[in-house]
């Protein structure tokens, strides 16, 4: 990594800003979390608008309030949470390509809806892939990210960019109807797992009919829920590999949805797994948001996931 | 080979090879993981072995469940029924350990508890071969089993806030090395100078599930020569232990 390359110079890093891509592959057996963008929908749109490939690294900004100066002419796109974006003080659209000139100052305000913003640059950030062929930032492990130490961005960090190509990306914008409303009531799709037999039917009925709220104790490792406690038969399990979205129920009966930065193995009983498409939507819910669950067939969930991946895998 | 599977998520299945923690499952699960990786190649995004299971993550754009499981069955049904036999060809990984109260603050208490001298406790801990049952908790954190019954001890009621990298511990019937600095509730008995996890290495983790490990007791001078550290111990140093000076190493068997 060379610092002679110009890029985006971070002046205010916000509450939590992390380099994220599609996450790691092939390293879970070493105890390494997969990481990756929490809301792949907004992340994929930011790259898509700029003509970047699906897996390109972008900046995941939680709770907004970021300020940076571009050291080069560049095209960027900001998607996700509803925040005010300004360039040199002038308000700019979200979910659209923005052209920056060297010296331009960009600010993001605090979210009015949603939680996470995604900032991509045409050509992608020049961050070397590390573990699992990914540059995902894993704070708990102190691996990955801009400096390969898992640290969030701080003031003074320079995000190096590829130089602008001869043909800058076209001005593009996501149609308004396709932009999600992150304040909408959220129903999460769950693929039922084999350990569902460990839950009494009254607990299952409760899980699929009663509302839960997202606890402020949630993070990139897990979404903790408040609501009716669930009963579980039997003891803890022998630790086994944990899937993305697994709904595990610890001794206090309050479900935890395991997310991108989850531990790789664990022994709490699991009801099933929330689908990746539902996790994308969950990633934009603020603490206190109400959630409900519904079962979905594996085939149907895979059909929706494939449609999502196939859409963004096409280049414009 | 006996196995069954269940669906764990949109792109994951869990293969089950047994019902309880059993050293005899380590080799078959390890072999299954290797065979599936080599046969499925990049179609398999992850294969995560644990005590009785192997979690497989696949690419939903390339495989549906039926086609994946067809191939998995084909591969696993060709594997020998090797349950119960330790893999003779598997290489033994030797891990040098400085067993000493300065780096293992629970060593004396554990020895007293089991009724052995510290030397005898060290001998009993290091005389057997351990298998890596699972990796988890932290990058490269290996759960090794099983310790002799008389050395088994419950984990600490109050976990320590900071355990230095390389520290060796015991909890219940398992023993483990902390690859990176982390909080920890295991009883600590020593420390290795080896770097257990380094993301810049081609193989970042020294240990992987299925491997066999032997601990070799070493004296303080060898520990320091091999790059071991004594300047980062959060529990302080007992009076009378001249560890900063690199005091002449005591021979194994001498009273600690």
Automatic annotation (TrEMBL), chain A:
Q: Where is the Carboxyltransferase domain?
A: 29-312
* A Pfam family annotated for this UniProt entry: CT_A_B
The cross-references to PANTHER family, in alphabetical order and at most eight, read: 5-OXOPROLINASE SUBUNIT C, CARBOXYLTRANSFERASE DOMAIN-CONTAINING PROTEIN
- This protein is called Allophanate hydrolase
| UniProt entry keywords in alphabetical sequence | ATP-binding, Hydrolase, Nucleotide-binding
* Family annotation (SUPFAM superfamilies): Cyclophilin-like
Q: Does the keyword Cytoplasm apply?
A: no
Q: Name one GO molecular function term.
A: ATP binding
Write down the NCBIfam families for this protein, in alphabetical order. Answer: urea_amlyse_rel (TIGR00724)
Q: Which InterPro entries match?
A: CT_A_B (IPR003778), Cyclophilin-like_dom_sf (IPR029000), PxpC (IPR052708)
From TrEMBL, chain B:
Q: Mind telling me which Pfam families this protein's record contains? A: CT_C_D
Q: Please give the superkingdom of this protein's source.
A: Bacteria
Keywords in alphabetical order: ATP-binding, Hydrolase, Kinase, Nucleotide-binding, Transferase
Task: Provide the GO MF annotations for this entry.
Answer: ATP binding; hydrolase activity; kinase activity
Keyword Aminoacyl-tRNA synthetase included in the entry's annotation: no
Where's the Carboxyltransferase domain? 3-207
Q: Check the record and name the SUPFAM superfamilies matching this protein.
A: Cyclophilin-like, PH0987 N-terminal domain-like
Q: What is this protein called?
A: Kinase
Protein species of origin: Marinobacter psychrophilus
